[in-house]
Amino acid sequence: MNGCEDKTASIERWLDGELSGAESESLRAHLAACAECSEARRRLEKLQSALTGVLLAEAQRVDFAPFRRAVQLRVNEKRPWHQEALDWMHDAFPVSRAAWVVPALIVLLLAVVSLESYLPGWRGAGRNAFATVDSIDAYGRNVALLREYDTKTTVIWLYQDQEGENEGAEETAPAGPAF
Amino acid sequence: MELTDRELVQQCQAGEMSAFQELVSRYQQKVYMVILGLLHNREDALEVAQETFFRAYRKISGFQGGSSFYTWLYRIAVNLAIDAQRRQKRNPLDFRETMDDLLESQDEAARDPFADLHDKELREKLISAINDLTPEHKAVIVLRTIEGLSYKDIGEIVGCSEGTVMSRLHYARKKLQDKLSAFL
Amino acid sequence: MKVLKKLPLRVLLFSLLAMLAVAVTVTAQKQPQNFEVRIGAILASNQSDEFDARLKGLEKQLRVLKYRSYRLLTDKSENIPWKGSKVFEIPGGRSLMVAPQEFQDNRIGLQVRLTEGQKPLLDTTVRIANKGNFILGGPPHEGGVLVLSISAAVQ
User: Fold this and answer.
1) CB contact under 8 A, A53 and B114
2) Which of A43, A58, A71 sits opposite B36 (nearest CB)?
3) What is the value of pTM for the model shown?
4) How many domains does chain C have?
5) What's the domain range around B68?
6) Torsion from C-alpha of C96, C102, C108, C114, nearest 10 degrees
């Protein structure tokens, strides 16, 4: 082989009118001198002719007058509302776009659900910002539980033993915070 | 003086039905041939061709002239034909049988440039070989064959680059030649 | 159009991989190995109007208690393994035992016991937001009261 295998693509492009002037001239000169490439060109042209012949022959059999009337009838026809809605959806969401919607939604849903794992507290201070007290045992002492909503603060306050373990302290500090 | 496609489209957008009918007349055969090349069934091809023009009429108010009218129209046709091909339940051999019927008639023999048995077999093999191509390859080879469209226009219609059009055409032609080598 | 045919499969595969990745990560997050627990011991009193600058981050919370003065006494931080426990020494001869019990919905369950010498003062189980805190206060100390800020974060 004399390295003409790559020429087939060029011959196709030439027959399709996609080569520049200079490229066409160069190829023409090559075709004049190369029997193999000339044969390739002949086969391509025959294939093209056969393809055109098959389809053109069939198309010429068709009487397009009824075709045009049928198109006109469809254009004039009042379509039911649900058909209009389906057509709109089909135009707005062609298959290629729709194919992405379901998996995109799945990924989005999972991302939102798992976002807390990656960005804890991303939702900001909300109901969950408060500490919740599940159980408390002050061993007989008075205890108060406070929730302050502006700062989302939970306070467990243990009051002093009333029997006065810390009598000195009582003189200088109030018994508890001024909630 | 014949109006250009652009002028007809503008008249159609203004509500002139006669302009739309002129566009149908202008492109009916070509659209049918493109679709027939993809579906290989006459009835389905006619139905899809009608649907193509109907969709074009519905969408014409949104056509802004970014592409030429015919590439826009063929894009609708190709997309509908590919959708129909997926739904196609009929045996594609129906087309071959239809062609055989046509070829048997004397009128056909008289007009048919491939009247001898060798060429009849070539056409049968050709139809079968085209059917074996994927829809993407069929689309580019049919558009190039029937319309002589540029790679750029074909790319706009089927939604791919010129390079992809070129490689698909090359592949399709190679496949067809391989299957039809005895006849070419 | 071959691309179109492949597209949903690619997208489906991508989605499955993403789901797998998320599931693995979320599962991993659900079983933390360690918690960082931080105890700030603060003296709150009305003896002055001093506010310790080191307590700036807790100022809004501490002002809830309505004392005039706040001073940081100790600030300790320890890593505690899940289901483990740690005892923090607190000013005034007291100690605070903290044991992380659970981690769910990004909240840490803590068992907390405040003792004075050998005497238990308070037992409580609290659930706080990851990186959140609660205030435990009241025991008298040096003319004021002892206030503890107890915070925890998943490691």
Assistant:
1) yes
2) A58
3) 0.51
4) 2
5) 1-90
6) -10
